[in-house]
Amino acid sequence: MEREINDFSGTGVALVTPFKNDKVDFYALGNIIDYVLAGRVDYVVSLGTTGEAVTLSLEECKAVKDFTVQKVNKRVPIVFGLFGGANTARITSRLTEYDLAGIDALLSSSPNYIKPTQEGIYNHYKAISQETDLPIILYNVPSRTASNIDADTIIKLSDECPNIIGVKEASGDMYQGACIHAGAGDEFLLLSGDDLTTLSLLGVGGQGVISVIANAFPKSFSTMVRKARFGDFTTARQLNNNLLKMYQWIFVEGNPAGIKYVLSKLGLCEPDTRMPLMPLTRQSAVAMEDDLQQAIAFEKSC
Questions:
Q1: Whole-model pTM above 0.85?
Q2: By C-alpha distance, which of 36, 118, 94 is closest to 299?
Q3: Residues in CB range of 48: below 8 A, 6 or more apart
Q4: How crowded is residue 230: how many other Cβ atoms within 10 Å of its Cβ?
Q5: Domains plus CATH for the chain?
Q6: Is residue 168 annotated as part of the catalytic site, yes or no?
Q7: Which of 96, 138, 181, 279 has its CA 20 to 30 Å from the CA of residue 3?
Q8: Does residue 139 have an active-site annotation?
């Protein structure tokens, strides 16, 4: 299949799943989708880590996916989070449990907890790629999975599985990012999986990001990414500097507690998370207030 990587370069936003009284708040989700699209993000990611997919039932996941497809209404591409832990067969079976009409690509994290070898990770993704014609974006997030997808494994998957089109790289290792770009080339998407290191990864060949902070600050963050992608790193650094403190605050108590609190301050959703995740504490909320107000003012000025 021909790779359509341009659909997923730039800024993708990993949408939160809003809750109200422990039920999915579809009204708020619709408002957030309209908000980020008005902020000129390039695509959305439904039911990723930020979307608390692992705390949702299969029926809730289907409902969120269906609502997102309907609400986006082909305005931008949609990436769907294909999560399933460490069971390869379980993940591939989920491809038949969902109606994937309206989904443009899949995002799949590396197997967690059991720490497979690189050969195991390679065969895991190869098995997934053989069960779908949809483009697949690998998700390398060692802080959550307890194992890294090595650059050589990513390059091998790029070479041998035509529908594996990129990686969301959240190792924080810029050398690894540079090696992926050098080995896989411009036709393989190198996407940041960490807002804080996005500008650095763009500097070593990255083509974009799947972002958390863009839920709340889509204009300023996507403009930063756009400027860097097209070579204006001077402006990009200035824009990035205005968001530096918020990068730290939104993860101070884990994801998505921080970003949901910020969205609540913008009037877009409740700050609620689903157990075992907890809402942001008052202590952190008070501590970030001045920086948050500056970031909100900056977003409005962009």
A1: yes
A2: 36
A3: 14, 15, 81, 83, 107, 139, 210
A4: 10
A5: 5-241 (3.20.20.70)
A6: yes
A7: 96
A8: yes
